[in-house]
């Protein structure tokens, strides 16, 4: 028996594996180095070819980045790892291609719009001006946008919220299917169609004149399906165990929805409403048809023509002179700031109303 144990090969006698477990790997800074070299090559090729567009330089640099990543990774790490790095490189290239236009638009708007954006510009209207001279402001447009978007929110948010509650909590049968179908249809309608509908019904049918309220109704039509869809998805994320626990305690269903379901989903619902507001804040077509525009301050949205920020930007840019184009860029910057403030407010409300957990 001892001879058999002695004849058995020991662990130290086992030869090492022929295939090493550790492979060569490229250093962590290699993607950055490849990107810098690719940008230099893209600029060089674009300059030699006589291309003046920086977009063409960027596309050539992106192509060099992907090809260079694949070639170097194949030589160092093998073809399998090269495919993984190429997929990562393509994702980064797509991300940069999506961010660059956004950054360029934001930089252009800020640099050109900040020339006039001051206290005077925000507190004065275009009343008594010829639109060809310098001066004036957008107070009348800002006031009109706040009133029109506010009225649209008052109309669309409750209707959209109640519709979503019906679809998630009560909706069964053909009526729910019909409501879902029409919500999907309304999501894709152009804004001009909503404006034409209100124009035919409110202005031509009932005989009312242009007003901010007419524009608000068209904006509410555009806002409502977004509120319904976002609220519906948020309500579906609420665990059914919370509903069952509340119902098991004898709480009525309507009170369960009011006290359990809605507080749990209030963060997502608020975010969806604010996204819908941001969606309609830049609409121009319904405002052109129903509000008409007004260089004077009209604080009454139910009577007379009003102005709005998108219509103000369009009217000023359409004039084509230097002063009006500067006012148009300042109006565009104000509109972007308005939407950003709405998003910040939405995040604040969502954090404030979010259900408290034991970890907080």
TrEMBL record:
GO terms for molecular function: phosphate transmembrane transporter activity. Keywords: Cell membrane, Membrane, Phosphate transport, Transmembrane, Transmembrane helix, Transport. CDD domains: TM_PBP2. The chain crosses the membrane at residues 32-51, 57-78, 90-110, 149-168, 180-202, 208-228, 260-281, 328-350. It is a multi-pass membrane protein. GO terms for biological process: phosphate ion transmembrane transport. Part of the binding-protein-dependent transport system for phosphate; probably responsible for the translocation of the substrate across the membrane. This is Phosphate transport system permease protein PstA. It comes from Streptomyces daliensis.
